[in-house]
Amino acid sequence: MNRARFRHLFRLCLELIALLGLYAIGCQLATWLHWPLPGGVVGLGLLLVAFASGWLKPATLQLGAGLLMAEMLLFFIPALMSLLDYGALLRSDGWRILLVIGSSTLLVMLATALTVEAVCRWRARHEP
C-alpha cells in the first residue's frame, strides 16, 4: 500500500472515530443528565457547538462524514425490511403514516435551515 493511500485511510479512520466519539459523549450526557433526547441528537448538538465556536472546522471531518452520507441507505435497510411484516397496517393507515413522515421531515428540514441561518448570521456579526 502506498504512503498516500495509507494516509487517506488513516485520516478516514480518525474522522470516523471522532464522529463516533461525539455520538458516545452525547449518549452519556443524555443518560447522566436524564435528558429526554436521544444521544445522537445531543452529539450533533456538541458537533454544532464545536463548529460554531471554531474549535473544529467542518473540513476536518469531511472525509468521514462523506463516507457515512454515501452509505446512509445501509442504515435504513433494516427499518425498511421490517415494514414487510406490517402490510395490513400500511394498507389501513399508510396514508397517515406517510403524512406524519412527510410533515416531520419538512419540520426537521425547516428547523435545520433556520438554525444554520441563525448561526451564519451570528458568526457574521461576531467576526472581526
TrEMBL record:
Membrane-spanning intervals of the chain: 12-31, 37-56, 63-83, 95-116
UniProt topology in membrane: Multi-pass membrane protein
GO cellular component: plasma membrane
Keywords: Cell membrane, Membrane, Transmembrane, Transmembrane helix
InterPro entries from the UniProt entry: LrgA/CidA
Locations listed in the record: Cell membrane
Top-level taxonomic group: Bacteria
Pfam family, one: LrgA
Protein name per UniProt: CidA/LrgA family protein
The organism of origin for this protein: Pseudomonas mangiferae
